[in-house]
Amino acid sequence: MVRLIMHGCNGKMGQVITRMVKEDPEVEIVAGVDKYTGISNDYPVYDEIGKCSVEADALIDFSNAAAVDELLAYCREKKLPVVLCTTGLSEEQLKKVEEAAKETAVLRSANMSLGVNLLMKILKDAARVLAPEGFDIEIVEKHHNRKVDAPSGTAIALADSVNDALDGVYSYTYDRSRERKARDSREIGISAVRGGTIVGEHEVIFAGEDEVIEFKHTAYSKALFARGAVAAAKYLAGKPAGRYDMSDVIQF
Ligand SMILES: NC(=O)c1ccc[n+]([C@@H]2O[C@H](COP(=O)([O-])OP(=O)(O)OC[C@H]3O[C@@H](n4cnc5c(N)ncnc54)[C@H](O)[C@@H]3O)[C@@H](O)[C@H]2O)c1
Ligand SMILES: O=C(O)C1=N[C@H](C(=O)O)CCC1
Prior knowledge:
Pathway: Amino-acid biosynthesis; L-lysine biosynthesis via DAP pathway; (S)-tetrahydrodipicolinate from L-aspartate: step 4/4. The chain has 7 helices and 12 strands. The protein is of the alpha/beta class. It folds into 2 domains: about 1-110 and about 220-250, Rossmann fold (3-Layer(aba) Sandwich); about 115-220, Dihydrodipicolinate Reductase, domain 2, CATH 3.30.360. Helix 2 (about 70-80) packs parallel to helix 3. The mean pLDDT is about 95. The ligand O=C(O)C1=N[C@H](C(=O)O)CCC1 binds near residues 111, 143, 153 and 154.
Protein backbone atom coordinates (compact mmCIF):
# COMPACT_ATOMS: atom_id res chain seq x y z
CA MET A 1 0.00 0.00 0.00
CA VAL A 2 1.41 3.41 -1.03
CA ARG A 3 0.65 6.08 1.59
CA LEU A 4 -0.01 9.50 0.08
CA ILE A 5 -0.15 13.07 1.33
CA MET A 6 -2.50 15.11 -0.88
CA HIS A 7 -1.29 18.73 -1.03
CA GLY A 8 -4.14 20.96 -2.22
CA CYS A 9 -6.60 18.28 -1.14
CA ASN A 10 -9.65 20.57 -1.10
CA GLY A 11 -9.15 21.97 -4.59
CA LYS A 12 -10.70 20.59 -7.76
CA MET A 13 -7.86 18.17 -8.54
CA GLY A 14 -7.37 17.24 -4.87
CA GLN A 15 -11.01 16.19 -4.63
CA VAL A 16 -10.96 14.19 -7.89
CA ILE A 17 -7.92 12.30 -6.54
CA THR A 18 -9.55 11.81 -3.13
CA ARG A 19 -12.52 10.07 -4.83
CA MET A 20 -10.31 8.06 -7.19
CA VAL A 21 -8.01 6.75 -4.47
CA LYS A 22 -11.00 5.34 -2.53
CA GLU A 23 -11.48 2.83 -5.36
CA ASP A 24 -7.80 1.88 -5.57
CA PRO A 25 -6.58 -0.88 -3.19
CA GLU A 26 -2.92 -0.02 -3.87
CA VAL A 27 -3.00 3.54 -2.47
CA GLU A 28 -4.32 5.39 0.53
CA ILE A 29 -4.40 9.11 1.39
CA VAL A 30 -3.06 9.33 4.93
CA ALA A 31 -3.19 13.14 5.20
CA GLY A 32 -4.21 16.20 3.25
CA VAL A 33 -3.00 19.79 3.27
CA ASP A 34 -5.07 22.77 2.19
CA LYS A 35 -5.36 26.33 3.41
CA TYR A 36 -9.12 26.03 2.76
CA THR A 37 -10.50 23.67 5.39
CA GLY A 38 -14.23 23.87 4.64
CA ILE A 39 -14.51 20.34 3.20
CA SER A 40 -14.64 17.21 5.31
CA ASN A 41 -12.45 14.32 4.18
CA ASP A 42 -11.91 10.87 5.67
CA TYR A 43 -8.23 11.72 6.38
CA PRO A 44 -6.73 14.43 8.60
CA VAL A 45 -6.28 17.82 6.88
CA TYR A 46 -3.69 20.44 7.90
CA ASP A 47 -3.87 24.06 6.82
CA GLU A 48 -0.07 24.26 6.34
CA ILE A 49 2.35 21.61 5.15
CA GLY A 50 4.70 22.33 8.09
CA LYS A 51 2.00 21.13 10.55
CA CYS A 52 1.77 17.67 8.97
CA SER A 53 3.89 14.99 10.66
CA VAL A 54 2.08 11.99 9.18
CA GLU A 55 4.42 9.34 7.69
CA ALA A 56 3.95 8.81 3.94
CA ASP A 57 5.59 7.22 0.91
CA ALA A 58 4.87 10.05 -1.57
CA LEU A 59 3.13 13.40 -1.86
CA ILE A 60 0.96 14.63 -4.73
CA ASP A 61 0.72 18.38 -5.18
CA PHE A 62 -2.05 20.23 -7.03
CA SER A 63 -2.09 23.60 -5.26
CA ASN A 64 -0.76 27.03 -6.16
CA ALA A 65 2.67 28.30 -7.18
CA ALA A 66 2.79 30.42 -4.01
CA ALA A 67 2.70 27.21 -1.95
CA VAL A 68 5.53 25.44 -3.74
CA ASP A 69 8.61 26.89 -1.95
CA GLU A 70 7.43 25.67 1.45
CA LEU A 71 6.37 22.37 -0.01
CA LEU A 72 9.78 21.73 -1.59
CA ALA A 73 11.56 22.59 1.67
CA TYR A 74 9.30 20.09 3.50
CA CYS A 75 9.87 17.28 0.99
CA ARG A 76 13.62 17.88 1.03
CA GLU A 77 13.77 17.73 4.80
CA LYS A 78 11.57 14.59 5.05
CA LYS A 79 13.16 12.96 1.95
CA LEU A 80 9.59 12.54 0.73
CA PRO A 81 9.12 11.76 -2.98
CA VAL A 82 6.96 14.48 -4.55
CA VAL A 83 4.77 14.53 -7.67
CA LEU A 84 4.65 18.22 -8.50
CA CYS A 85 1.69 19.04 -10.75
CA THR A 86 1.16 22.73 -9.91
CA THR A 87 1.87 25.03 -12.86
CA GLY A 88 2.93 28.68 -13.11
CA LEU A 89 6.27 28.23 -11.26
CA SER A 90 8.84 31.03 -11.62
CA GLU A 91 12.40 30.51 -12.92
CA GLU A 92 13.61 30.79 -9.35
CA GLN A 93 11.18 28.08 -8.25
CA LEU A 94 12.29 25.81 -11.08
CA LYS A 95 15.84 26.10 -9.71
CA LYS A 96 14.50 25.09 -6.29
CA VAL A 97 12.92 22.03 -7.91
CA GLU A 98 16.39 21.05 -9.19
CA GLU A 99 17.90 21.63 -5.74
CA ALA A 100 15.19 19.53 -4.06
CA ALA A 101 15.83 16.71 -6.53
CA LYS A 102 19.36 16.36 -5.12
CA GLU A 103 17.80 15.25 -1.84
CA THR A 104 14.57 13.49 -2.76
CA ALA A 105 12.73 12.07 -5.78
CA VAL A 106 10.89 14.82 -7.68
CA LEU A 107 8.59 14.25 -10.63
CA ARG A 108 7.37 17.53 -12.11
CA SER A 109 4.99 17.49 -15.03
CA ALA A 110 2.69 20.21 -16.31
CA ASN A 111 0.41 17.56 -17.73
CA MET A 112 -0.13 14.07 -16.37
CA SER A 113 -2.03 12.69 -19.38
CA LEU A 114 -0.80 9.96 -21.72
CA GLY A 115 -1.92 11.97 -24.75
CA VAL A 116 0.01 15.16 -24.01
CA ASN A 117 3.16 13.26 -23.07
CA LEU A 118 2.98 11.29 -26.32
CA LEU A 119 2.32 14.54 -28.20
CA MET A 120 5.54 16.02 -26.81
CA LYS A 121 7.44 13.12 -28.33
CA ILE A 122 5.65 13.33 -31.71
CA LEU A 123 6.19 17.10 -31.92
CA LYS A 124 9.95 16.72 -31.83
CA ASP A 125 9.84 14.73 -35.09
CA ALA A 126 7.37 17.15 -36.67
CA ALA A 127 9.50 20.15 -35.70
CA ARG A 128 12.70 18.62 -37.08
CA VAL A 129 11.02 18.08 -40.46
CA LEU A 130 8.85 21.20 -40.71
CA ALA A 131 10.89 24.03 -39.15
CA PRO A 132 13.76 23.80 -41.67
CA GLU A 133 11.08 23.97 -44.41
CA GLY A 134 9.99 27.36 -43.09
CA PHE A 135 6.87 26.34 -41.14
CA ASP A 136 5.89 28.83 -38.43
CA ILE A 137 4.96 27.36 -35.05
CA GLU A 138 2.04 28.61 -32.94
CA ILE A 139 0.40 27.13 -29.84
CA VAL A 140 -3.15 27.92 -28.71
CA GLU A 141 -4.41 26.68 -25.36
CA LYS A 142 -7.90 26.93 -23.84
CA HIS A 143 -8.88 26.43 -20.20
CA HIS A 144 -11.70 27.11 -17.74
CA ASN A 145 -12.38 30.52 -16.23
CA ARG A 146 -10.98 29.57 -12.79
CA LYS A 147 -7.42 29.05 -14.04
CA VAL A 148 -5.00 31.63 -12.59
CA ASP A 149 -1.83 31.04 -14.62
CA ALA A 150 -1.39 31.77 -18.31
CA PRO A 151 -0.17 30.43 -20.58
CA SER A 152 -0.74 26.91 -19.28
CA GLY A 153 2.18 24.87 -18.04
CA THR A 154 1.36 22.38 -20.78
CA ALA A 155 1.64 25.02 -23.53
CA ILE A 156 5.09 25.96 -22.23
CA ALA A 157 6.11 22.29 -21.99
CA LEU A 158 4.93 21.68 -25.57
CA ALA A 159 6.92 24.72 -26.74
CA ASP A 160 9.99 23.49 -24.81
CA SER A 161 9.66 20.10 -26.42
CA VAL A 162 9.62 21.65 -29.91
CA ASN A 163 12.42 24.08 -29.04
CA ASP A 164 14.65 21.29 -27.63
CA ALA A 165 14.36 19.48 -30.95
CA LEU A 166 15.43 22.70 -32.71
CA ASP A 167 18.57 23.26 -30.60
CA GLY A 168 16.84 25.80 -28.35
CA VAL A 169 17.10 28.69 -30.80
CA TYR A 170 13.42 29.70 -30.68
CA SER A 171 12.02 32.46 -28.44
CA TYR A 172 8.44 32.55 -27.15
CA THR A 173 5.99 35.36 -27.95
CA TYR A 174 3.01 35.72 -25.62
CA ASP A 175 1.67 39.09 -26.72
CA ARG A 176 1.64 40.54 -30.21
CA SER A 177 -0.17 43.76 -29.30
CA ARG A 178 2.90 45.74 -28.15
CA GLU A 179 4.93 45.83 -31.34
CA ARG A 180 3.78 46.42 -34.90
CA LYS A 181 6.00 44.02 -36.80
CA ALA A 182 5.76 40.72 -38.61
CA ARG A 183 6.58 37.58 -36.65
CA ASP A 184 10.15 36.33 -36.56
CA SER A 185 10.71 32.93 -38.15
CA ARG A 186 12.43 31.70 -34.98
CA GLU A 187 9.61 32.31 -32.57
CA ILE A 188 6.85 30.19 -31.11
CA GLY A 189 3.67 32.18 -30.50
CA ILE A 190 1.71 31.04 -27.44
CA SER A 191 -1.88 32.23 -26.95
CA ALA A 192 -4.23 31.57 -24.03
CA VAL A 193 -8.05 31.48 -24.05
CA ARG A 194 -10.04 31.31 -20.77
CA GLY A 195 -13.73 30.53 -20.46
CA GLY A 196 -16.47 28.41 -18.90
CA THR A 197 -15.58 24.90 -17.85
CA ILE A 198 -13.11 23.95 -20.62
CA VAL A 199 -10.97 21.23 -18.99
CA GLY A 200 -7.99 21.77 -21.29
CA GLU A 201 -7.25 22.06 -25.00
CA HIS A 202 -3.88 22.43 -26.67
CA GLU A 203 -3.30 22.98 -30.36
CA VAL A 204 0.15 23.10 -31.91
CA ILE A 205 0.01 24.62 -35.38
CA PHE A 206 2.73 24.31 -37.99
CA ALA A 207 1.85 26.84 -40.70
CA GLY A 208 3.80 26.62 -43.94
CA GLU A 209 3.45 27.84 -47.48
CA ASP A 210 0.09 26.60 -48.78
CA GLU A 211 -0.30 23.99 -46.03
CA VAL A 212 -0.99 23.79 -42.30
CA ILE A 213 -0.55 20.84 -39.95
CA GLU A 214 -2.31 20.92 -36.56
CA PHE A 215 -1.81 18.64 -33.59
CA LYS A 216 -4.55 18.86 -30.98
CA HIS A 217 -5.12 17.36 -27.55
CA THR A 218 -8.43 17.72 -25.72
CA ALA A 219 -8.95 16.76 -22.08
CA TYR A 220 -12.61 15.89 -21.40
CA SER A 221 -12.26 15.32 -17.67
CA LYS A 222 -9.92 16.11 -14.79
CA ALA A 223 -9.88 12.38 -14.00
CA LEU A 224 -7.34 12.12 -16.81
CA PHE A 225 -4.79 14.15 -14.82
CA ALA A 226 -5.69 12.42 -11.55
CA ARG A 227 -5.01 8.96 -13.02
CA GLY A 228 -1.59 10.11 -14.22
CA ALA A 229 -0.74 11.69 -10.86
CA VAL A 230 -1.66 8.56 -8.89
CA ALA A 231 0.34 6.36 -11.30
CA ALA A 232 3.29 8.75 -10.88
CA ALA A 233 3.08 8.59 -7.07
CA LYS A 234 3.04 4.78 -7.14
CA TYR A 235 6.09 4.87 -9.42
CA LEU A 236 7.97 7.41 -7.30
CA ALA A 237 7.46 5.79 -3.88
CA GLY A 238 10.78 4.32 -2.77
CA LYS A 239 12.78 5.84 -5.66
CA PRO A 240 16.15 7.49 -4.93
CA ALA A 241 16.64 11.26 -5.12
CA GLY A 242 16.60 12.67 -8.63
CA ARG A 243 14.50 14.31 -11.32
CA TYR A 244 11.83 12.16 -12.92
CA ASP A 245 9.15 12.90 -15.50
CA MET A 246 6.08 11.25 -16.98
CA SER A 247 8.14 9.48 -19.63
CA ASP A 248 9.56 7.40 -16.74
CA VAL A 249 6.02 6.37 -15.74
CA ILE A 250 4.34 5.94 -19.12
CA GLN A 251 5.77 3.28 -21.41
CA PHE A 252 5.18 4.41 -25.00
N1 LIG B 1 -0.03 18.75 -14.10
C1 LIG B 1 -1.30 18.56 -14.49
O1 LIG B 1 -1.64 17.60 -15.21
C2 LIG B 1 -2.35 19.51 -13.98
C3 LIG B 1 -3.71 19.24 -14.20
C4 LIG B 1 -4.66 20.08 -13.63
C5 LIG B 1 -4.24 21.17 -12.88
N2 LIG B 1 -2.92 21.42 -12.72
C6 LIG B 1 -2.43 22.52 -11.90
O2 LIG B 1 -2.66 22.18 -10.53
C7 LIG B 1 -2.91 23.36 -9.77
C8 LIG B 1 -4.22 23.20 -9.01
O3 LIG B 1 -5.30 23.04 -9.90
P1 LIG B 1 -6.81 22.94 -9.36
O4 LIG B 1 -7.67 23.04 -10.56
O5 LIG B 1 -6.97 21.78 -8.45
O6 LIG B 1 -6.90 24.31 -8.54
P2 LIG B 1 -7.82 24.69 -7.32
O7 LIG B 1 -7.70 26.17 -7.16
O8 LIG B 1 -9.18 24.10 -7.47
O9 LIG B 1 -7.12 23.97 -6.07
C9 LIG B 1 -5.93 24.40 -5.46
C10 LIG B 1 -6.05 24.13 -3.97
O10 LIG B 1 -4.79 24.47 -3.38
C11 LIG B 1 -5.06 25.10 -2.16
N3 LIG B 1 -3.93 25.92 -1.74
C12 LIG B 1 -3.57 27.13 -2.21
N4 LIG B 1 -2.49 27.57 -1.54
C13 LIG B 1 -2.17 26.61 -0.65
C14 LIG B 1 -1.15 26.48 0.34
N5 LIG B 1 -0.26 27.44 0.54
N6 LIG B 1 -1.11 25.34 1.06
C15 LIG B 1 -2.03 24.38 0.88
N7 LIG B 1 -3.03 24.45 -0.02
C16 LIG B 1 -3.08 25.55 -0.77
C17 LIG B 1 -6.32 25.93 -2.42
O11 LIG B 1 -6.98 26.28 -1.20
C18 LIG B 1 -7.12 24.99 -3.28
O12 LIG B 1 -8.00 24.18 -2.52
C19 LIG B 1 -2.88 24.52 -10.78
O13 LIG B 1 -1.59 25.08 -10.79
C20 LIG B 1 -3.15 23.83 -12.12
O14 LIG B 1 -2.63 24.52 -13.22
C21 LIG B 1 -1.97 20.61 -13.25
O1 LIG C 1 -6.96 23.12 -15.03
C1 LIG C 1 -5.76 23.48 -15.05
O2 LIG C 1 -5.35 24.46 -14.41
C2 LIG C 1 -4.78 22.73 -15.87
N1 LIG C 1 -3.52 23.04 -15.76
C3 LIG C 1 -2.44 22.38 -16.41
C4 LIG C 1 -1.62 23.37 -17.22
O3 LIG C 1 -1.47 24.53 -16.83
O4 LIG C 1 -1.08 22.96 -18.25
C5 LIG C 1 -2.82 21.14 -17.15
C6 LIG C 1 -4.19 21.20 -17.74
C7 LIG C 1 -5.25 21.61 -16.73
